[in-house]
User: Fold these one by one.
Assistant:
Number 1:
Amino acid sequence: WNIVNIFDSSVRFCVPVFVMITGTFLLNKDYEIKDFLTNKALKIIVPFLFFSFVYIVYNYGLNRVYSLDLKEFPQFALNSLISGSSYHLWYIYMLIGLYLMTPILRVYTKNATKDNLRYYLILWFAFSTLASYSLNIYLPNFQIPLFLNYTGFYILGYYLSKFNTITPRQGLLLYLTGTALTIGGTWYYAARQNTFNEMFYGYLSLNVIMQSVGIYAMVYKSQINNSLLRKSVALISVHSFNIYLVHVLVLNEMHTITWNYINPLAGILLRSTVCLLISLSISIILKKIPVVNKLL
């Protein structure tokens, strides 16, 4: 359990950093609303719908589909699309929401001063952190949800792309401190309550925000000198969205394999690597299939 906690705590920055990177790219450009929705937004919505259908069929049961037992399928598919056909797709729903808000947020970021952006981020940081640790119950309900969601990471990515003064060394310190707080806090509450408490795993918690800012500061404008590593990163980057969409399907099938005989440390690394390679291979194959490649 401790090994899993260390690994999971070390990578809690993934979702926030993805949102920050998205903000870096999308909030630095002007868009016509129609052009943005038809070009940018559709690039994530179409693959999302494709893989949502795959998960719907998978969860409904391949045997039921093959045997044309489809009486309950329409309602099942509708419910799955509304609530999410797989647990990890919550991120795509959130991302679509940010995309829909982007033309509006761009007007703000384009015209906001550095101090104004800082003011927004301070409020977001304060309210999101309080909510993450359930401390907001001690405050009046100010009804300002703008400061209680992932919009802050979105604008934070833009802000750091313009005004970042954090050095890579300071970024490393932020990351290590945030990771240590995540590991230690999770272990402390698990030992105290004799059950898993995911409070420190929250993406909007202080410790994960520290992690995320640290990682962003370390990798922003960094260069990869090793040609093999550079090509590998470029290949994964091209397929990263599809990898994310399909990886849970791969993990579900990998769960049918017994991994108990492997040391937990080696097992986590091996399973992660195998899942990445299989997901990458699936994406490469799908992009070579006519019609399907136009959807992805």
Number 2:
Amino acid sequence: VPLGDVIDWSFEITNEGSVLLEVSDIVVAGDYFTVSYEEGLQIARGDVLEVTVSYAPVVAGAHEAQLTISSNDQVQGDVFVSVSGEGIMSVINADPVALDFGGVDVHSVGTLGLQLLNEGNLDLIITEINPSIAQFTYELADGNDFVDEPIVIQPGGSYDLTAYFTPDVQGAFDGMFTVVSNSYEQPEFEIALTGIGLNVNPTVVNPIDDQVIIEDFGLLEIADLDDVFEDIDGDVLTFTIENAPVEVNMVIDGDNLLSLNADEHYNIPDGVLIRIIAEDEDGETVADEFSLIIT
């Protein structure tokens, strides 16, 4: 009998004698069994009394009890009836019992395997798995989404699923999966989840073209550095210029527009390699290089 449930079993007391049979008491010796009857019952010759025994286990395992029926039976005196039952339950567990994804780059996905276990002796029926925060998700092994049917794990069995961690910002994340099932002792089983969203270095997505200009060209807008560089975790980037001769007057304005306006009659026929460095809020950098020739 599953723990928490009740099952009834009935038996009959028959008066096979020639006089009125008076049942004075029915006593149960044993846990989780109860008996229902009307005290002081009288059973006429040839009649039958039905007695109901209820079994409601709250502890798993085998249980036994003895009923003692007391009456005015002059031949047998007290009559003994043995009853037995077994309390069964599903016991949920997980392997591992907690998931630590470690460090995962922001907007990337960390993946770990997880097994749900039934360590009881009754089918484990799982109806929901609820993540506490959106950064932790899961995928069931067979594509089940609980819409059509629950997950059923037989005693001693297991069920595989895949857990995911997708950080959207830098920092530590703590969450849990709450597994809802018919497990008697833990109907809402919690699996702890941890992970860290790591900084992603800035990248060059649109390199600056090499620049060839004529002497005294005037103001040249080279590139919008917000289009040249990208930081997918949203850090604000700062920019610096390396190797640019002072005479070219290369600057980055408040809108991150890179431009130059070389001095009059200044030229660099052999060219120079200019380096633009982007740095994120964590001090990580990336550089883009382009050549500048002024003829």
Number 3:
Amino acid sequence: SIWILDIATKQARHLTGGSALQITNGNPNGFFRPSWSPDGQWIAFSSDRLTEWTGHESGAGAGHRQRVSIYIIHPDGTGLKRLTEGDASTGTPQWSPDSRRVIFYEMQAASLRTPGAGSPGQTPGTISEIFSWDIATGERTELPSGPGAKVKPQLLPGGRVGYLLKSAPRDSTLTPGIAYSDGAKGIAGTLVRSPSWSPDGSRLLYERHSFVARPQGQLLYSWDADFEYRYTDVFPMFSSDNRLVTTDLNSTMGNPQTSISTWNSDGYTGRKRIFWDPSGSAMMAAWSPDGKQVV
């Protein structure tokens, strides 16, 4: 669902909670990627409402082909309009600077299988196109863009379109990452996500995922000055004499060869790797009451 929060009062209002939007028969009822128009009059979002489950396990399991459409609504919950519909999926709506058009991607619903099928557009060979929709006239226009699976488009000054290239065509020399409709290259990498350009197009905000394990005990940011937060590996447990045991998750992806280690009471010094078998994974060790054995 989509909520509007008043920052001053901290009061939240359920924008998509009205009976005109909510689906109550058990079919898909998700509301995603809200985007406020620059003039403050509209909020665009994508939704899979008014669709059917298509996967295994009575339709709601793995293999579901998520078909989403673009909608706009006034911030007070009135004026709901559905902009796109059909067999394709359209998503990540963004506004033109003059608030007259909504920019979005379109790809085949088969590329949006969920859950358990990876991120939308991640599979090599997936293709999407970028369109704009004039909210006054209903005119739909395909915008110039490059090949591959393109999401999170944004109209930039001069008519350029910036977007995230999730995957490149097979046998292509293109690299996933930030790309532009005029062929210019941006930040590269398959773990780059959620680009957002400043209004003048001169700056880019994005996130980059990392699956590199942090060192045990690495100091983390604390929201509370009275507490110190440090990173620990998975399944930690203290013994009766305040020693820590952890599972050493050496890789955060796939099926790693995990081992078991103990640490001093501070949780990050005096490591002893007490068990490791390269033929498999050892996990979730628990102390005996006297602290002399683990199971």
